[in-house]
């Protein structure tokens, strides 16, 4: 039977290019190392190295084994190290609205992981209130919100303000227009929008009320993917935040910035006030200045 020890010995022999050097690195005698190599070759039914006066070098079979097993052993060692230090790795629980988890959070994952000191667990909620409740009751360490209201007992800190974009089929007449106004969209287009309660819907509703316009909402859906599916089939147009719209790779739809009377949404992070010094630097690059 092939042992893990034999694989480790073989990898070190290839790295050193010499049985003598490998035995020094491994603190085993050269005869013992040679014996382990011969046993490994016997189990595999083939030789793995070519021996010469300068040392050894892997043959094609040895190169294949080295390439495959190097990454396997590295992953094995990482797993063992994580298990040994499991109690030292802290869970960092993050909640967020779906499009923020998908399109905004990934850019911060490396900082959140803190070089392996944090295990990041992400969960999606459909409303700011569920996320705020999650922070307050300890379900989440922090939460990503959209157009959040100030809270009494937790800190809500703005990270980024972004405009909404109009998304429509490439066959739509908007495709040939450079300037698109919000008024034209809500007065003349069929709208496929996120389902209430939704902060993006609230922004659209507020702007429409201010302009005394009633939009023609033909469909309401929960997921961005659902909106795009119906928009691409010609059922209407939708309004999406810029980080979502710019990331789209759906050939059947196009996006335009709303250049006249644009609408914005604010992305914020919520956390308990005592955690701000520890958690906020993870998002420091985009923290808004007062």
UniProtKB/TrEMBL annotation:
Transcription regulation among keywords: yes
SUPFAM superfamilies: Periplasmic binding protein-like II, Winged helix' DNA-binding domain
GO cellular component, one term: protein-DNA complex
Domain of life of the source: Bacteria
Record keywords: DNA-binding, Transcription, Transcription regulation
Domain HTH lysR-type span(s) in chain numbering: 2-59
Protein name (record): HTH-type transcriptional regulator GltC
């Amino acid at each position: 039977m092939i042992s893990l020890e034999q694989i480790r010995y073989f990898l070190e022999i290839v790295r050193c290019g010499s049985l003598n050097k490998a035995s020094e690195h491994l603190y085993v005698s050269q005869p013992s190392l040679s014996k382990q190599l011969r046993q490994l070759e016997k189990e595999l039914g083939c030789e793995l190295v070519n021996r010469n006066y300068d040392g050894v070098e892997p043959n094609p079979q040895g190169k294949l084994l080295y390439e495959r097993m190097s990454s396997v052993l590295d992953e094995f060692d990482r797993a063992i190290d994580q298990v040994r230090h499991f109690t030292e790795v802290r869970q960092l629980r993050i909640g967020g609205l779906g499009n923020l988890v998908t399109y905004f959070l990934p850019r911060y994952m490396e900082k959140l992981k803190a070089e392996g000191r944090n295990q990041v667990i992400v969960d999606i909620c459909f409303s700011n209130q569920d996320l705020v409740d999650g922070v307050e009751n300890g379900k989440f360490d922090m939460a990503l919100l959209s157009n959040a209201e100030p809270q009494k007992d937790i800190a809500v800190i703005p990270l980024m303000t972004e405009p909404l974009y109009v998304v429509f089929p490439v066959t739509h007449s908007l495709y040939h227009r450079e300037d698109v106004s919000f008024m034209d969209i809500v007065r003349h287009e069929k709208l496929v929008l996120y389902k209430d309660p939704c902060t993006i819907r609230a922004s659209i509703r507020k702007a429409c009320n201010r302009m005394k316009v009633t939009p023609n909402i033909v469909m309401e859906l929960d997921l961005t993917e659902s909106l795009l599916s119906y928009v691409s089939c010609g059922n209407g147009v939708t309004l999406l935040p810029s980080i979502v719209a710019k990331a789209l790779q759906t050939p059947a739809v196009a996006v335009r910035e709303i250049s006249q009377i644009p609408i914005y949404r604010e992305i914020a992070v919520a956390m308990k006030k005592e955690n701000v010094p520890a958690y906020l630097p993870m998002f420091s690059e985009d923290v808004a200045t007062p």
